[in-house]
TrEMBL record:
The enzyme's E.C. designation: 5.3.1.6
Catalyzed reactions: aldehydo-D-ribose 5-phosphate = D-ribulose 5-phosphate
Residue stretches spanning the membrane: none
SUPFAM superfamilies reported in the protein's UniProt record: D-ribose-5-phosphate isomerase (RpiA), lid domain, NagB/RpiA/CoA transferase-like
NCBIfam families the record matches: PRK00702.1 (NF001924), rpiA (TIGR00021)
Record GO biological process: pentose-phosphate shunt, non-oxidative branch
Gene: rpiA
Binding site for substrate: S42, G43, S44, T45, D97, G98, A99, D100, K110, G111, G112, G113, K137
UniProt source species: Methylocystis hirsuta
Classification of source organism: Bacteria, Pseudomonadati, Pseudomonadota, Alphaproteobacteria, Hyphomicrobiales
Protein name as annotated: Ribose-5-phosphate isomerase A
Gene3D superfamilies linked: 3.30.70.260, 3.40.50.1360
Class in the EC hierarchy, top level: isomerase
Family: Belongs to the ribose 5-phosphate isomerase family.
Active site: E119
Keywords attached to this entry: Isomerase
Length: 244
């Protein structure tokens, strides 16, 4: 279990990291059955799941899927996976997604790829949410990974100050950085918002922070996923272990 971002990643070769992500994705795929309505997550681990699902679809598996990002939509479309929207299919059986961090209580930090809003909406519309991750994402206390917060573009600086004030009230102090897609160019989410990455360090009371961030005008949503994940498939050197 790591307390610092990337610490274990540095020790892990790129190949084995990808192999572990794929192993977690393959294990989660075993729960997918004919006729399921699925939410498709975003990020490199979720991309392994979509890729493996595509192979099953080519073999005849019938599922209908709602993607959580335009990137995932493009990948799924290219693999011939049948897609829908939450307007057409408002209730899903299962969402499979990655995470930037998770703890023993199945709480997550998500949004490293900037898709947290749609990921959260899709997860909340699903009966179950399976998280797929390699073991380096497991932490004792959330917060080593800077918490992404999606904010409206209007009044972004004021909203950042508000976030800082709220965090300080919980004893959380750390730099807030507006995310750039590349130097000088702001990252814009699929929903047209900014992302602020909040490097608070250890978040002792994630529930309180989640509630207070949600109450800030201008905060569209935040990357704390609490009470959404129903199982976490953790791939490590010894195989895949399931939490939850
Ligand atoms: C995107 C996410 C991703 O699930 C998260 O960033 C993990 O990505 P990866 O599997 O590439 O490590 O939350 O918004």
């Amino acid at each position: 279990m790591s307390d610092r971002p990337g610490e274990a990643n540095v020790r892990m070769s790129a190949f084995s990291a990808e192999a572990m992500k794929r192993a977690a994705a393959r294990a989660a795929l075993e729960s997918v059955t004919h006729g399921m309505r699925l939410g498709l997550g975003s990020g490199s681990t979720a991309a392994h799941f979509v890729d493996l699902l595509g192979a099953r679809v080519r073999e005849g598996l019938e599922v209908i899927c709602v993607p959580t990002s335009e990137r995932t939509r493009a990948q799924a479309e290219s693999l011939g996976i049948s897609l829908s929207t939450l307007d057409e299919t408002p209730q899903l059986d299962l969402t499979v997604d990655g995470a930037d961090e998770f703890d023993a209580a199945l709480r997550l930090i998500k949004g490293g790829g900037g898709a947290l809003l749609r990921e959260k909406i899709v997860a909340a519309a699903s009966t179950r949410m399976f998280v797929i991750a390699d073991a380096t994402k497991e932490v004792r206390t959330l917060g080593a990974f800077p918490l992404p917060v999606e904010i409206d573009r209007f009044g972004a600086r004021s909203t950042m100050l508000h976030i800082e004030r709220v965090a300080r009230g919980l004893g959380l102090i750390g730099p807030l950085t507006m995310r750039d897609a590349e130097p000088g160019e702001r990252f814009i989410t699929d929903g047209g918002h900014y992302i602020v990455d909040c490097a608070f360090g250890a978040i002792d009371d994630a529930d309180a922070l989640a509630a207070r961030l949600s109450a800030i005008p201008g905060v569209v949503d935040h990357g704390l996923f609490i009470g959404l994940a129903t199982a976490i498939f953790i791939a490590g050197a010894e195989g895949v272990r399931i939490l939850g």
